[in-house]
Amino acid sequence: MSERGYSRRKWSNRVVLSLSGIAAGLAIMVLVLILGYTLVRGASALNLDFFTQGARPVGVAGGGMRNEIIGTLILVGLGSLFALPVGLLAGIFLAEFASPRTAASVRFAADILAGVPSIVVGVFVYAVVVRPLLSYSAFAGGVALAIIMIPIVARTAEESLRLVPSSMREAALALGITRWRAVLSVIVPGALTGILTGIMLAVARIAGETAPLLFTALGSFWGFRGLLQPIGALPLQIYNYALSPYADWQRQAWAAAFLLIMLVLAISILVRRLGSRRRA
Amino acid sequence: MFGRGGHTGDRVFPRLTLVFALIIVGILAGFLVVLNIDALPAIRHFGLSFFTSSTWDPVKQIFGALPAVYGTLVTSAVALLIGVPISLGAAIFLVEVAPRWLRGPVSFLIEMLAAIPSVIIGLWGLVVLVPAMKPAETWLSIHLGFLPIFKGTVLGGLNVFTAGIILTFMIIPIITAVSRDSIKAVPDSQREAMLALGATRWETIRRVVLPYCRSGLVGATILGLGRALGETMAVTMVIGNADKLSAFLFSPGSTIASKIASNFGEASSQLLLSSLIELALILFGITLLVNVIARVLVWRMTSVKAAE
Questions:
Q1: CA B277 → CA A123, A126, B36, B255, B260, distances in Å?
Q2: What digits encode the pLDDT tens for the residues B174-228?
Q3: Which residue of B has its CA nearest to A8?
Q4: Is A154–B92 a contact, with Cβ atoms under 8 angstroms apart?
Q5: Measured between CB atoms, which of B86, B257, B260 is closest to A27?
Q6: Domains of chain B (ranges plus CATH)?
Q7: Cross-chain Cβ contact B16/A38 below 8 Å
């Protein structure tokens, strides 16, 4: 092969490999731009009122998102309350009891459910919860978030349970305890870190969800007034305030975005540390 | 091993877990049944004209989905056209190029992008990206105005193209992560054979690695498409929400998801509500199909390694 052909091949190799680095850099740049802007705008928008005051009527300056912070906590709590039993037991079923064919179908259903657009989840819950109860409600919002949370919890629980060495399973059974006791008192504790990781990721996800709450929790000017009443949430209020023409409301939207991003960041970093400790 | 009728717990507990696992299947079936029943009035009333009409008039009670379907396809196409090369490049970088110590942090940062709530990306898009898009789009419409998609007057940054750019940001993490795993699943023996023949790294990647994991890469792209089709908040906030059918990329539009998000709350009549639920059913059907195809492709690719 000629010398010129060789140097051309080396050159194109270098160009393309550099381009791949630029592509990765671009993806990270987008993250830095969004994160950086939100952190800077949000940090300067936060104040004590944001945490202690409720919303003010249109045209009245000031106020905060105390009600929406409480609302998000209640909605995430309700979502977890509904989703955790289903997700965890389904995960145990997939990892421990299902025949390969049943497991494949349930796993497939979970993956498909995870891919359903969150706005469709909102429409579905409107039809099955809001309409029969004749009211938008915190309960309906919790159900919508639970539907998003279930597949995440089920799949991560299953994967963590599968990582428990079968020697532990056999040792427990050899001691003469029943199979279900072995699952609950040996295998599940052995997979606890992984299961908790999955739950935290799911919480981070649903805490920022907006679309499924639009026609379920709806949002509310007041704070929590009962499970069957509408309730506000931070992401909903970001949406409402972002599209408003008032500078003070836009400032509060950034403060809320800051709070949500910090939550997501904290969980992501914690999960990463748990993950690396588990591998070590 | 476990005698029949021996331990009550061993009969009850597995069945209990089965019941909860079936709830997942039940929810999925529930989507199909409920959305179909509630969309029926609109399906009966409009039939196929729902897809061909671009009128959305709550006063005359005429609803057509064409602009929303069109907007969904165009924004997703823009996102894939820009997002796939970037994601594929990043995935190649992560597996084949980057030094080992860099791979973990870069993967983590790209995955972080997927963790940012959609509404925050929308807020950022509205405040930062929309104003920045107008000059760029004006420039494109002047210099590439001979193409129909760029031909027109740019009124502002709230438009279909901006929504496509926002979607690009949102699909990069998933396409990168799944492509990375597919590329990783290519056996090293394949690379070594090619390198031993004197090929450069890029030739190895292009001639051996990428063809080997092609189905995984296609699966990754389709998963990204599934994400783009159903993305709601960020798109609703930057697309301008207009019921217009226009080839011009820089004009306001809507997607199926944004249409539902911005109209459902004020649905004043049964027919309007039913039409919006039909939109949800269409979106559900499309994403279902797309996700099934993607799962099968990715599963085929990543199980290759396990089989060896």
A1: 7, 10, 8, 14, 8
A2: 999 999 999 999 999 999 999 999 999 999 999 999 999 999 999 999 999 999 9
A3: B200
A4: no
A5: B86
A6: 66-307 (1.10.3720.10)
A7: no
